[in-house]
Amino acid sequence: MTARTFRTPAIILKRRDMGEADRLVTLLTPTYGKIEAIAKGARKPTGSKTGHVELYTRADVLISKGREIDVLAQAELVEPFLPLREDLMRGAYASYIVELLDRFTYSGEGATPGLFVLLNDTLTRLCQSDDIRRAVRYYELQLLDKMGFRPELQECVITHEMLLPIDQFFSYVDGGVVAPEGAPHTTGLISLPMPTLKVLRHLQRSTYTQINKTRIPDAVHTDVERVMIGYIRYVLESRLQTVDFIHRIQHLD
Amino acid sequence: MSSAVPEPVTKLIEAFSALPGIGPKTASRLTYFLLRAPASISQNLSDALDDLKSKTVLCSTCFNITVDDPCPICRDERRDKRLIAVVEEPLDVLAIERTASYTGRYHVLHGVISPVNGVGPDDLKIRELAQRLDNDVLEIIIATNPGLEGDATAMFIQRDLAGKGVKMTRLARGIPMGGDLEYVDAVTLMRALQGRSEMG
Ligand SMILES: [Zn+2]
Predict the structure, then answer these.
(1) pTM above the 0.90 mark?
(2) How close is the nearest chain B Cα to the Cα of A249, in Å?
């Protein structure tokens, strides 16, 4: 017999209007993973205990188990991540990291250890960092790791030899680096210049505190992004809608 | 659904169920009400549904729903040409009109930027808003809903129209009427403080 209600921290990932005044919300929780619940009366500004369910905020929520769908009985805003609401680019990147998480996880499949902390930390970094792309790339590599798609960056995935400090290739299909000697034995390779590989390795192996001290030149950033977005698109087998929006904003000025 | 229910009944229940805010129970109740009610009620409903799509268009200026193009507000010479309130949906025009205190004109975006749901700036009437800006327009009041997506849409429009020589304002956000400070979230309270106004 499981409890009829439970209280948990939650980050609001998605919300969709339902009926006259209700909302269906998708939440990420540390213990129960991704869950969906209905917030009754959430669209009315007054008189609702769940009116503060806003995208990409952290709240303490009370969920009551329903027969068909769980109900969000109470929500208390804990962390509004304000800069995401006041800066178009920070907000757009928040949509991107949430889209990734949403595509990689399924409601009701239980928690992935460390995922809640990773999302919470990344939203915090998006609010504070002077290099938001660095925070986003770090998130991508940590997320791929947790989801079982950790790219191999230490040795050639074809020859299994250690890599020489020269330009390499990257294979989406094989999920890792391919050395020039391995290249004839596989297809669909993209280029992987040495400076890009160095940054990727650093992002994959270091703590964020270490990453935070590293300055990544603009050109390298652009190239790291090319490899990461390409690989993630391949793994998810789809285009990422938030990436198009980010590019659109980058070209506004 | 059981085969004891005739097909025309099932069909209407399913049609009602597809509407927002109507679950299977309400859909059944409405259907059985119509079955028992005089035929004129069904006929009126059916006529109204026919007219809804066949007799309405979007206003080619403000994109509100209208019978005649341009819409009555865009045609009304007494409405202030210098002010345009930008709203998400036609229902928001009604909400502002109900205040009876706004004399400017409107622009309906038909949604809000929501990249996660595949809605980008080009899916809304943002380009059409830029095309409306002439020497007459002095101020654009961005009246999208408060919240991440409404705020992002407001910021996007602000950046997109920057340098066109028009003043851009955002609706003030505050405590709802009948609301209790104790239950107001921190963000709303903070913004209400920022947007406080002098008394007297
Ligand atoms: Zn009009």
Answers:
(1) no
(2) 8
